[in-house]
Amino acid sequence: MFLTITNTSAPATDLGYLLVKHPERLHSFEASFGAIHVFYPEATTERCTAALLLDVDPVALVRGRPGTRGDGALLDQYVNDRPYVASSFLSVAIAQVLGSALAGKSKDRPELVETPLALEATIAVLPCRGGEGLLRRLFEPLGYTVAVERHLRDPQFPDWGESNAYTVKLAAHCCLQDLLAHLYVLVPVLDEEKHYWFGADEVEKLLRRGEGWLAKHPERDLITTRYLKRRHLVRAALARLIESATDPDAAEQAHDQEEQAVEERISLHTQRLGAVLAALKQCGARRVLDLGCGEGRLLQMLLTDRSFEQILGVDVAYRALEIARDRLRLDQLPSQQQSRISLIQSSLTYRDRRLVGYDAAAVVEVIEHLDQHRLAAFERSLFEFARPATVIITTPNAEYNVKWESLPAGKFRHRDHRFEWTRAEFQRWSNDVAARFGYQVRFLPIGPDDPAVGPPTQMGVLRATEPAA
């Protein structure tokens, strides 16, 4: 189990003061599961890297447990991936040997604690039950640039397919304490397992390490549910997070959030909105269009994030705009907040000068409601005329419909859908649009990524290759 943290803010060796570990020494510590080592592969003024190596003893993990026998019946307890993949052991190691940095303390250089640094963290092998899409939805809203490399199940037998393990690189200009807190919470969430029994004190750990970011995270419910697992703990944590959140509708949404937590899964709709929000933040958008905004759920998330300076919600249905206005409580917002957001009625298949000049446009579960012969008008009005620098489009993956037991074969998910595309069809359409209008496109899954049929929702992120005329 291997983690490296690199600082490139000069003098880069200041990292040693924050970690309270001298760059010229090897630091070793005993742990209940093996040994923990901290060392520096490089330490110069320009670049300093600290490495955290966990030597996990698989035998020590089960030695002394009730019912353990030496006849090999419990061989799977000894032969597993725990010594190699990042897990809750990494969180324990961070708290045990980097505790001062995690707590935001530096005796010798206290001013460094609140100093943002150019940091990059690399996790050699990180299991993720949820795929690359989940990785990005958890880390990108926190401001990280995320790079991933998926591992094969066995490099010697590539036909066995890909595993759920990734090498992950996170880069951001942030405080070291924040980076460590994010890793402490999110690594066990991605692994979705914990190696120790936990009780009510885990709620306090989560709230302490999540202070300042978890309450506003678009995947707050998923993180809380996976981290705590037990329903009564999840409900207790969510109640306190909702109370501390700045979302004006948080109290009204408390019942829905608790219901999601009891079900121990987050809704696909919420996952979609979280993925779109992460993509908007990653592209650095300040002025954002929500095309087909409906009742304003994405608008609500955008409004609570001050990095979005100008937000325009657009829908052809006036009633939907009225509901969005009520949901957002536009008439009750402070004047500064009111100046950030507008709602207008407009059709997505007609040119509208009010849509010109925005950094990004979100088109969430909209195109499948258009008649296919009207797609050409939509394409020109958005990509040629309005031409935002980034366009984020989500749509159902028709291949996944076989996973819905209540959906008859050959039927669409909604009676108003004019079509539902397979992954190949959506990619073919997106690539064609990108080629014709000067965009580059990448595709991301949303929801559980089934090896055979893919994810329930597919997302395309189109970036303009040249500025609008």
The coarse silhouette is globular
- DSSP helical segment count: 17
Catalogue the unreliable spans.
Answer: 64-76, 246-266
Main beta sheet: strand number and arrangement?
7 strands, antiparallel
Chart the SSEs and their pairings:
Elements lengths: L1 E6 L6 H6 L7 E5 L2 E10 L4 E9 L1 H5 L12 H4 L9 H10 L1 H5 L13 E11 L3 H9 L5 E8 L9 E13 L1 H16 L9 H9 L10 H9 L2 H14 L5 H13 L5 H15 L4 E5 L5 H7 L6 E6 L2 H11 L6 H4 L2 E5 L14 E5 L10 H12 L3 E7 L26 H15 L1 E8 L10 E8 L5
Parallel strand pairs: 8-9, 8-11, 9-10, 11-12
Antiparallel strand pairs: 1-4, 1-5, 2-3, 3-4, 5-7, 6-7, 12-14, 13-14
What features would you describe in this structure?
By secondary structure, the protein is an alpha/beta fold. Helix content is 35%, strand content 23%. It is built from 17 helices and 14 strands. Strands 2-3-4-1-5-7-6 form a seven-stranded antiparallel beta sheet. A seven-stranded mixed beta sheet has the order 10-9-8-11-12-14-13, sandwiched between helices. A hairpin with a 4-residue loop joins strand 3 (34-43) and strand 4.
Please sum up the structure shown.
The protein contains 17 helices and 14 strands. The chain has helices spanning 14-19, 58-62, 75-78, 88-97, 99-103, 131-139, 176-191, 201-209, 220-228, 231-244, 250-262, 268-282, 297-303, 318-328, 335-338, 375-386, 423-437, and strands at 2-7, 27-31, 34-43, 48-56, 117-127, 145-152, 162-174, 287-291, 310-315, 341-345, 360-364, 390-396, 439-446, 457-464.
